[in-house]
Amino acid sequence: MVRPGLELQTEKSCETEKFQSETLRPILKFQNGIILAQFKKYIEKFKPQFNAYNQSAQKNYIEDAMKKDVRIKNSLIACTVSMMTLEEYEFYCANKNELNKRIVAMVIERIKDQVVMLY
What we know:
Structural class: mainly alpha
Distance between the termini: 32 Å
Number of strands: 0
Oligomer: single chain
Largest sheet: none
Helix content: over 70%
Number of domains: 1
């Protein structure tokens, strides 16, 4: 498998937490460059003055954009889902609402933690 392996404790986790740890986190780590590039293109198009704001305002913008703008949210969810195996995709479809919330939350934190990479 192409994804990076992560050493995470999942024995006592529920199915969605286990899926998050074993599937979503490695995919997001693998797709990190694409996620940042997509968000960078998004801010260049929709918020060209992004770099003029302080980091706190930038992080607020990242969170607002991911929660309110369906275009970027769905694009980054699709970036994640497209890396799943068929079995993972079937589990995703059965738990889509919960997993989309988890994907969005993890992507927001990933971008906010690397906000300097957006300059």
